[in-house]
Amino acid sequence: MTALLSMEEVSVHYPVKGGVLRRPTSWVKAVDEVTLSIAPGETLGLVGESGCGKSTLGRAVLGLRDLAKGRITFDGQELKNLSALDTRALRRDMQLIFQDPYASLDPHATIGATIRAGLDIHRIGSRAERAERVTETMRQVGLDPSLADRYPHEFSGGMRQRVVMARALVLRPRLVVCDEPTSALDVSIQSQILNLLKDLQDELGLTYLFISHNLAVVEHMADRVAVMYLGRIVEVAPRAALFAAPRHPYTQALMQAIPQPDPARRTPPPLTGDIPSPDDLPQGCRFRGRCPYAMARCAEAEPPLLGREHRAACWLVEEESTR
Amino acid sequence: MTLADPRELAAADLGTALDEVPAGPPRGGFRAALRRLWRHRSGKIGGGLVALIVFCAIFAPWLTPYDPLKLDMIDRLQPPSWSHWLGTDELGRDLLTRVIYGTRYMLLVSCVATAIGATGGILLGLLASAGGKWTDMAVMRIVDIMLAFPYILLLLAIIAILGPSLVTALVAVGVASMPGYARLVRGEALSVRESEYVEAMRVLGAGNWRITFGTVLPNIASPLVIYTSYTMPLAVLSAAALSFLGLGAQPPLPEWGAMLVQSRSFLRTASWVVAAPGFAIFFAILGLNLLGNALRDVLDPKART
Amino acid sequence: MSELLQVEGLKTHFQTESGLVRAVDGVDLSVNEGEVLGLVGESGSGKTITALSLIRLVSPPGKIVAGRVMFGGQDLLQASEREMVQLRGDRISMVFQQPKASLNPVRRVGAQIAELFIHHRGASRRAAMNQAVELLARVGIPAPERKALAYPHELSGGQAQRVMIAMALALKPRLLIADEPTTALDVTIQAQILDLLRELCRDTGTAMILVTHDLGVIAQTADRVSVMYAGQIVEERPVARLFDDPRHPYTRALLASMPVQGRVAPRLGAIPGSVPPPGRMPAACRFAPRCAVRAERNMTICTHEMPALYPVEGGVSRCWCDAPAEATT
């Protein structure tokens, strides 16, 4: 199957500004040569801890960050080569659901106006048709259309997140980047939103890039999972394979670190040490400072993604396969 | 842990939140703010003073039997009495009448000058925030230069170019307040442009124009109202000062600054002549400032206690 | 095991523009010596206000209007402000969610820890500094002598939380109140911090109230659990019992709504609606409007009368389903 979205060696760098003149003194590789693809209708889960570059990658996919290297293709078109007009057209196909439903809604716009914005911008339909589409989309996300003239501050977090979803879906996009869509919400609300995201995917045939720090949530949502650590993909595999037998030591640790709601299984912390700062990476494998299996070879060279369908960036994978 | 009863799940699994509806009629932030303003103590006093000024300006001819300009050489320099509550000036004009008519000039000055300053400053500030690195640099250097001039010198320079009159004073005071607005607007606009809801507009494909006027401008309205409440009294005071220096409204217009300068030589012999316009200016500024403080409390959540 | 802290009928109300908010509405709690009590609830449940009320740190317009907080034979709600200042940081201490916001940004962390020894124990500057370095080493800060001279902004989030824990446990308090201590941290760091808290409390014999929204954290850390909903305790059980056999419908629904690793279901359990806003709190059972059990069994009492805390196996539950027969008639 051809990919709807593919990223080839995508890198995004941020300047580290220093000195009185605030000139860039060095660059942080927030995203470092990431290659991934997403098939139509698929959900790719992207997991990692804060600062690993997962949100930056999500923004880069939407063309909101300049690439230092690599290319991103959507439906066969390379993003960088598009004219301004085509970029605008592409906006209808790719949308973003934000993490924080408080910060991502304009406090001075009614939720109806917020949801309608996409239609206004792209001049879709007549006034009546736009109102019709807003009503329909509000129903789809479980919002009462009669609330269209309310302001965001009148709503709870879960309701606001539905507004954020409606705003993204009103343009009938094909790809939706979900950037931690439930981390700002309570568990009981989180499950409402996750269920809704699944329903909408079935109903509208959406493709998701689902970004989260929570492995349990990703396991629930994703068909395939990519694990990111300090700007790199360290493991990517079909969901079942990854959760049955994680290959990268970081993925293993991440799984073990999630506090399980089961007092009978109390686990000691799997990792010692802090996450290194992305502007000061160790030589070789970037996980080796915290890795319980670190070997001499890990300091020499950074492992590439090894394996076929279940790929992990760890020298142990190579040794297993040669043995 | 046990999974909950499947029926329980089904009941919980409606996937809708239709049951959750905000109470009461739809309310914007604006009406809530007005209500809070009414409850604010100094807001009530300031609002009352300003309302009184507006009332006087509108109904001036009905509030007094006298003509503010007509000379009456018989009743010159009368002290306050039943027929002339605040007395008369050196040309026999009723001072209360002139003070009442003066509210019209005061409102004209505060509204027009502020409108000029705010419009110009907002446009400059938005241009700087939205126009990219070089535009920003160019606009802000001009603003810096204007701010580097002493305020009164800037006013004098503008009047020197345009010649002294009431209209000139208005324009001068307005232009002189532009750089302050521009700087405020740029700062606020830049921080709003960083917000996620602006990013959301970009993701939807909104252009710079729509983002600037459709999203950024409404979201910087509160600090702008607060700032305006500070500049308005300053505009009134500046215009009065210019008139006092003979560079603004010219006698015999019943403008308070012009009234002051005209009567200042009678300060010792007939103090009421000076007191009337002096206290009028005082109460007008007090009213605007009290209202401004109240507005800040009401609109700026950070300053609220 | 003897009782260290006993809270009865605690009520903390907020007088706001839109009316009176009963953030904490009649909470009973107890903590035994050396025990970890988990206080779990979603946002708006009143769990943080409860924790702050215990040491009287509720800021206006919040006001403690009723209840007793017995600690060491004394009702803390009756104690003078001076006694409370003495008590806080010494016999009862706190760890907050945002460690960097709780540290003074312009003072070196070593000096901030040392200050505790100087103020509360009258230690000399030098001795206090040595103790501070020792503590930093104890909470797992690498190169503690060097880090003692660091400013808070030079620490990572995990390190800052370790420093906060060092400060909280410096004077070997009898009770530690930890309010979402790991919520701002990454999972791998969270696991370390929870382990550290558990271990240090065990070593010093300190009891802990762990306030969190995360049932996973509770399961991994607590001995006993109190579940809060809309300002009230709805269930209080030993941790194993709570997770094996949750009694209150809210606890059950909450557990069902958590995605659990290794157990992929097509759909998650969800609680419809959300916590009622303060002004529109149901007069009877506060969970009734969202309760699946009530809906299914068509129970009318739930919307007419407030249930009390009824004894269930190992603890109590605030549900009419658990009420003894005579109470419902």
Describe this protein's structure.
Chain A has 323 residues and is α/β, with parallel strands linked by helices. Chain A is built from eleven helices and eleven strands. Chain A is 33% helix and 23% strand. In chain A, strand 4 and strand 5 (77-78) form a beta hairpin. By secondary structure, chain B is mainly alpha-helical. Chain B has a single domain (39-61, 84-299), classed as MetI-like fold. Chain B has helices spanning 6-12, 29-39, 41-63, 95-130, 133-148, 151-162, 166-193, 196-204, 208-219, 221-244, 256-263, 271-299. Chain C is α/β, with parallel strands linked by helices. Chain C has a domain at 101-170. In chain C, helix 4 crosses helix 5 and helix 5 crosses helix 7 (157-169). Chains A and C meet through helix 5, helix 6, helix 7 and helix 9 of A and helix 8, helix 9, helix 10 and helix 11 of C.
Tell how many strands the DSSP assignment of chain C holds. Answer: 12
The topology string of helices and strands of chain B comes to HHHHHHHHHHHH
Strand portion of chain C, in percent?
A: 15-25%
Shape of chain C: globular
Largest interface, by Cβ-Cβ below 8 angstroms: which chains and how many residues each?
A: A-C, 46 and 48 residues
* Count of all domains of chain B: 1
Largest sheet of chain C: 8 strands, mixed
Query: What is the second-level CATH architecture of chain B?
Result: Orthogonal Bundle
